[in-house]
Design a protein that fits this description.
Largest sheet: 6 strands, mixed
Shape: globular
Helix content: 25-40%
Oligomer: single chain
Strand content: 5-15%
Structural class: alpha/beta
Distance between the termini: 33 Å
């Protein structure tokens, strides 16, 4: 008899994963070398699992991969980097988080009705996973999707996350429109009883240049709130 799957089981398997030799080598190298400003910290240096309000979450937020000195350092996705500063501040303003601050897993942050994961669970060199590394990780996202039984809305942060989620959805038996929907900020696609929303990634490349502003990011999660409320409890 096989054990029933659970978020806890997925988390344990993610943390122990060594499927991708290039990513294993890179994440462990970064954990040894460290950034000067974090030299006294012990880096996580392993794959980073998803986290959040998993018994109740109606919103799933999907990113690209952990940052080398963010999630790869702290052990929690989007925690301890500038992208996370933007993301959690927006989630707090729109009611999906109890605070807008995320510096470590012990900082008191709690997500409300939301769960955060990434397409790739290890920090990749140059922030660019290969297609093979993406495909090695997708089964974790597929399992999380199935385990989030109340899931109604997915926010994909960037084109890589958008494409990764659509691949995971198709592999789960969800009918994906043809031609495949194109990514865009505030792009919206119905996938059965769920809705996929696109958002520019809150990377420094986007926030420093003004491609993504706070009101633009808030608009995505405000729309996500409208859609989750439409779906009821």
């Amino acid at each position: 008899m096989t054990r029933a799957d659970s978020i806890e089981r997925v988390t344990a398997e993610v943390v122990d994963c060594r499927r991708c030799p290039r990513l294993v080598e890179w994440r462990e190298l970064i954990a040894r070398q460290k950034r000067a400003s974090f030299v006294d910290e012990e880096y996580w240096g392993r794959p980073v699992p998803g986290f959040g309000d998993h018994p109740r979450a109606r919103l799933l937020i999907v990113g690209l991969a952990p940052a080398a000195h963010g999630g790869n350092r702290t052990g929690r996705v989007f925690t301890g980097d500038r992208s996370g500063d933007w993301l959690f501040a927006s989630l707090h303003r729109t009611g999906f988080a109890n605070q807008g601050r995320a510096v470590s897993p012990a900082d008191g942050l709690e997500l409300i009705d939301a769960y955060i994961a990434a397409v790739v669970r290890c920090a990749p060199p140059a922030n660019k996973p290969t297609t093979g590394e993406r495909d090695n990780c997708l089964p974790y996202l597929i399992r999380e999707m199935k385990l989030l039984e109340r899931l109604r809305v997915i926010v994909a942060l960037g084109a890589f996350a958008w494409d990764g989620f659509l691949r995971a959805a198709a592999a789960s038996g969800i009918e994906v429109p043809r031609p495949r929907p194109r990514f865009g900020h505030l792009a919206e696609v119905r996938l059965g009883d769920r809705t996929l929303l696109g958002s520019f990634h809150p990377s420094q490349q986007n926030t420093f240049t003004g491609k993504l502003t706070e009101p633009m990011l808030d608009a995505v999660f405000t729309r996500a709130r409208e859609l989750t409320d439409e779906g009821g409890t």
